[in-house]
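For the sake of transparency, this paper describes our internal protein records without simplification. The remainder of this section carries one protein's record, kept here as part of the documentation:
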Amino acid sequence: MAVLESRPFQTPSANSVAAKLDLMSPDVEFHQFNEAWSPGEPVVVQGFATLSDEFWEATAITRGEEVLLVGIAACAPARSEWREQSRFVERDGVWSAEVELSIEGSEIAVELVFDLWVVGPGRTANLREDQAIHPGAKLWQLPDSLVLPLEREEADFPTSAVSFSSTGRRAVPWMVEAVGEAEPQWSISSSVRLYVNTDLDVCSQIVDGTAGEDVYSAIGCDIQFAVLRQISVWEDSVRGDRLRSIAEEDYGSLAAFGASIAATLGIALDEGCRLARDEPSSLVNRSREALGYFRALGTR
């Protein structure tokens, strides 16, 4: 059953506002974005909207009152949000407004979500004068937010280059983060991600493959630990046989990745999860040995 949103003020129909989003930088269509954009480059999106006569009639707002177009861009993995607003003005009999959202490429990762709102003085129909208007009411928004993926599906491992100082992370070259609620059957890209710090010069070397072997071995160790540690969270509710079943049924699942890691370490998945939970230092050392971390250090 469809659920209708109820608001304590008069709202217009969805068709009373005509709105669109355009990609300005890079200057391509949205579906061509990944072919034209490189990590670290800025992203600029412009929003435009017009109000029909029906809008004014349905909201009971007088033409000329302050009604705003609000553009929003959000990046959950980067813990960032951007907003710009512009007042609707009349030009040649048409009430229109436009906003431009400019986002630094070093501050984003995984995906950007764009939305447009129309905000104004909502009429509540309350007989009390001091409650007759709802200031800053969200009168309208895009039926569907625009989701702009920032990464190519063919990447070897989910990786994002972001500014750690801008996203509240420690000043280290990289971090491997697992999504707290990620379950064993989730896809790898939805469960765990490598973040590389664009504040440091080593970022470009890591991304383009020119960093030292010890760096990639250390990153591999962090990935292995993060994956097994995340799977171990579900050990009480998802037993070993069920984990193995998930891994065998879906090679792209977190469980399958964990099973592959455990095999690399010469242990069963159950044991890998136990080490991650109870003996993390032992797991790290085993991982370093398997990935040749100390051999890589010796070559420097």
Remarks:
- Residues 159-298 form one domain.
